[in-house]
């Protein structure tokens, strides 16, 4: 598979490696803010310095670019040239993402991953409202009733697989701030 980026576009993309405040991230931040949700940014004391941290929800939100994080979608296309180099690089990013996710989960943080392609105009509103529902569900899990039905995340495009494995952990409060 080849991509259609011009050299200038490629340069722009590469200049964004590790950059903060990307547009997809800003979309999520504006939405959260508009809904009265307060967060901290790029929290260094957590594994991988997550983009958006909602302490009250014990949740981190990772907004991932589809190319750099190797999302299995149409936005992820390996360049023609130096294909192996890019493949290896993106595989390393994927491995790092997986480790980061596990570390956060071990510390009882909820992890919501949002992909760049989920924030394209056509699907953006659905994604953001699913995010809101997921956050409400998390709040219920963290502070809510003693009994709860494990959340299956039906029809939730955002991080459904993450939510379904939540349990209430007696130690969770230790990590709350
Ligand atoms: Zn994608």
Topology, element by element:
Blueprint: H1 7-15, H2 23-34, E1 40-41, E2 52-54, E3 59-64, H3 83-106, E4 110-115, H4 121-143, H5 160-163
The site of zinc ion (ZN) has 7 residues, from loops.
Explain how this protein is built.
- The model is unreliable at 146-177 (pLDDT under 50).
- The protein starts with 6 loop residues before the first helix and ends in a 14-residue tail after the last helix.
- The longest helix has 24 residues, at 83-106.
- A 4-stranded mixed sheet has the order 1-2-3-4, with helices on both faces.
- It is of the alpha+beta class.
- It has 5 helices and 4 strands.
- Bound molecules: zinc ion.
- Zinc ion (ZN) binds at residues 66, 71, 73, 75, 115-117.
- The site of zinc ion has 7 residues, from loops.
């Amino acid at each position: 598979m080849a991509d259609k980026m011009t050299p200038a576009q490629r340069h722009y993309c590469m200049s964004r490696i590790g950059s903060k405040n990307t547009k997809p991230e800003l979309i999520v931040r504006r939405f959260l803010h508009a809904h009265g949700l307060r967060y901290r940014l790029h929290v260094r004391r957590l594994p991988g310095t997550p983009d958006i941290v909602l302490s009250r929800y014990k949740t981190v939100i990772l907004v991932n670019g589809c190319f750099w994080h190797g999302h299995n979608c149409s936005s992820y296309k390996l360049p023609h040239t130096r294909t192996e180099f890019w493949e290896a690089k993106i595989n390393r990013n994927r491995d790092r993402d997986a480790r980061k996710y596990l570390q956060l989960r071990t510390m009882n943080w909820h992890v919501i991953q949002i992909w760049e392609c989920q924030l394209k105009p056509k699907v953006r509103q659905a994604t953001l409202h699913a995010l809101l529902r997921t956050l409400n569900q998390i709040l219920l899990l963290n502070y809510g009733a003693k009994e709860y039905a494990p959340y299956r995340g039906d029809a939730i495009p955002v991080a459904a697989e993450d939510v379904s494995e939540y349990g209430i952990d007696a130690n969770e409060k230790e990590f709350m701030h």
